[in-house]
Amino acid sequence: MGDRDLSLNPTDREWESFRREVAANALPKKLLEILVAMVRTSPTGEMLQTTLQQTLDVSTELTHAEEGRIFLFDREGRASHWIFSRNESPPNLSQEQLEGILERGLTGWVKQYRQVGLSLDTEKDERWVDLDRTSYRARSALIVPILKEDYLLGILSLLHSQPGHFSSKTADLMQVTTNQIALVLHNAQLFAELTRQKKALDRELEMGQCIQQNFLPPQLPQYQGWEIAAFFKPARLLSGDFYDFFELPNRQLGIVIADVCDKGVGAALFMALFRSLIRIFSGQTALEGVSFNSPFTSGLVDKLSSIPAPLESISLSEKIYTSYRRPNIAHINALKAVRLTNNYIALNHGELSMFATLFFGVLDPKTGNLTYINAGHNPLWILESQGGVKESLEPTGPAVGLLPNLKFKIRQTRLEQGEMLLGYTDGVTEARAPGGEFFTTERLQKMVDPTVGRASTLLEEIAARVLEHTGVANQFDDITLLAVRREPSIEKS
């Protein structure tokens, strides 16, 4: 009993004894609360450091240790981090000196045998190696491994200047503590590894997004008397939607808008494949070094074209045989790309069940004639200059890639001066509000009823209205729009 206790009267001594008993009972509860909080802690650096420091301080107080330390090891067993109790100044040791002590002393024994090291008297324990200090000599030591299965994550070290201070009961309690520390440290390592992998994956996805963005036309083509516009907003880093404009022989314009089934990486890869096949098989000349008639594609085209097909697989509707809509053989040959692409996907990748809804049109800028195939895509609209839908370009065949040798009919129409071709994917009409309500085709159609102005302005207005509709809700699908407007003639006064 200390001098302070002798100076107290019996009543005060009883009160002091009661206070100590309450405090002693409160410490295990406090440690338990910290351990529970530790398991629930987000395993990040600063929070983990704080939690381990609290655990060490309470463990030191609970065991009446004079000094306490936690050493954490990396996967090679080297000390990567250490924490000292708040009442202790860390020794001025280099990494090499610390490693030597951790390898040679009682700590080294614990590291080697993965067992609790309890030293009742360090002067009689040959395993003990003291720190090179004169101000403090530990006579009792409790070294507890922090183990996750057989993997040593760290060590808890508690010291006292009196021999026999720690007991096996104390060792059992601290072993429970280190088990919880091990769980938290293991979770932190898993979290760090997952974070590292996620960052690596994000970098790969960002690279994929950059590559995919390069698949879209870097600059929209320009034709005198025409305005061309597009809008694209993917729901994720990688998209299954795409649009394309490319020049065909004789300054004909290829127009594509498509939506590949599924989302994410798979859809993005097939988006690139669909785009490339349509361009190559249509004979577009902008793809440097490769054309429809090149040796690179001729063998593949012959193979895919040799598949027996009904006459209707590429057919013309009677609608195009009018005085100003005579069949354009060059357009028809280009549109054979749809059938060739369908057969390539179905024959080579049919087991993946990947397909795309796709509109492919070929525009003659001189006449405004548009020859097209709509392979299961949302109807494109021809808008009148005074507003409203003049014509809906409905599907003329199924989605591309479902089965080989599918039927695709060709249609032809004309864009008059002041009229506009508007295309969209279902990410527009099926955009969801926070309450789940769709944007709908009807709402989109109301937006084109007024007088049609510039193509770019209309797309900006549609995109703004769709994003306003979705509000704070996560974007569910890619949003893709394109517009091709034939400018009105300017009458001379």
Automatic annotation (TrEMBL):
Residues 223-486 form the PPM-type phosphatase domain. Pfam families: GAF (PF01590), SpoIIE (PF07228). InterPro entries: Bact_Sigma-Reg, GAF, GAF-like_dom_sf, PPM-type-like_dom_sf, PPM-type_phosphatase-like_dom. Keywords: Hydrolase. SMART domains: GAF, PP2C_SIG. SUPFAM superfamilies: GAF domain-like, PP2C-like. GO terms for molecular function: phosphatase activity. Transmembrane segments: none annotated. The keyword Hydrolase applies. It comes from the Bacteria. Residues 47-195 form the GAF domain. This is SpoIIE family protein phosphatase.
